[in-house]
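protien #1 (seq + structre)
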Amino acid sequence: MTPADTRTVSVADRVRTVDHIGIAVPSVAEAVPLFVDLLGGRFLSGGDNDERGIRLLHLALGQFKIELLQPLRADAAVAAFLDGRGPGFHHLTLFVDDVPQTVEALAASGYAPTGTDTASPRWSETFLPPRSTFGTLLQFTSTTTRWDVPAQDYGLRDVLAGRVVWRDYVACLRDDR
């Protein structure tokens, strides 16, 4: 092996791109006039994550993406965030090629990743908590799915009406509505 082959790959070398910022809001429907109507956000996807108790709305805004997060119940982590900090910036999502290797690189750099979940190739993730990142929740994600393509089977109104649910990281129309 040459020295280049044996060097440790840094966290910076693992980050492919910034995917999106997450913004916590009390109501996605109330945020639509600002982010869609005024700023021109284009609908990409969204739906309810019943397990986490949140409604998500993904929008393309220029060459960037935002994710609006609304709590659907009081025990959702986003509800606690809103209670403590109010609406606003929630997280920054960075795409990486490999979450376990990124966890190793973060740990080797003195950071303690948390919430690592690699159960699904559609969406594997780990986080650096705000207490170690100047108040910013950093999400490192690897995925086999394109998240910049608009949904074809449902639209913004379906998301706002709660007719879309996430199942294994795929948004689909609910069977029960």
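ok now protien #2
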Amino acid sequence: MVPCCFFVAMLAPLVLALEQSPDMVIKEGQSVNLECSKKKSSNRAMYWFLQPSEKNSSLTQLAYAFEGLNAEVEKGFERHFKSSKIEGDSISLSIEHAFLNDSGTYYCAESEHSGWALQQSPDSVVRVGDTVTLECSASRKDMTYLYWYKLPMEKDARMQLVVNSVEGGKADFEKEFQNLFQSNGTRNNHLSVKIQHALLNDTGTYFCAERDPQ
């Protein structure tokens, strides 16, 4: 049987101009390593996105990394995709044993702002059962995408995406946060999240992040 081919098209990145791997075609079952380098060394966050080849497919975030922290691969992709942390000005994404349905356009993006560059709620200590509201305001008025991430207190814990929201849209919570967390979405570059009846395992560091729509 003739092996199927897998097409990776590297096009213009989402946020700012970057240097990244060229277009490539490989055989199904081979491994792929995609490289991306920042243009601005001051930028503190980098991302990988996938636009599948299927018609009318949506853009999916695969992985992200903040300067000085390990990269995180989004839930559902962690077994098949691996991302390096930001090393110097570069980040890489590897795919082991590529499948035909991995075909698509892979975008690398960088962002000038990460969770540390926004106005957000100060540190707080609450009792179990209390209600907590996290407030985040974008530092620039043209930001349309806002995110909340959680870094649990446990040793070697991984940063988790809690919610994302586009300006004027609803809040899209990850499954594990849907029951106790509430939000009305992003309004006027502001995204607040309410934790109803906080539990002990809600303890952690919460980061707000923004993304330039360009």
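The two ends are 44 Å apart (CA to CA).
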